[in-house]
Amino acid sequence: MAYSTNGMPVHLGLGAGVDGDGMIPNIAFKVKTRAKTADYTVLAAESGSRFTNLGATAAVNFTLPAPAAGLIYQFYVAADVSVTVTGGTAGDLVALNNAAADSVAFSTTSLMIGGCFEVWSDGTSFYVNILSDGNTVTVA
Questions:
Q1: Domain ranges, ordered by start, for the chain
Q2: CB contact burial 65-93 (16+ within 10 A = b; e otherwise)
């Protein structure tokens, strides 16, 4: 066995825990996916997460935290029940033809599954990207 100058074992010319691509797989970025089957208040600390309603049998409402620069979330409809994303404060969503929306939703029967909202903040508002194909969106 060979050792590096810092005393760590080296295998095939790589440091401990480094794969053949020079990456450390155990600390590689991984998006957290969370399935929620009931109403849920999203935490700022969960920024970068994807949420689904997988397993839900009734409508699920996700309430966002207060806008803060850099926050980003995705909300994906996997079960055939309504998914609504509501701003933490009234009027802090910028969505389809509405610069001061309170909520966005996939709630039209048979036009929900596969719909996705990506929501990100600049510190003042949350901006809603509608990532869907043929799903009906309600902005209120």
A1: 1-29, 31-139
A2: bebeeebebbbbbbbebbbbbbbeeeebb
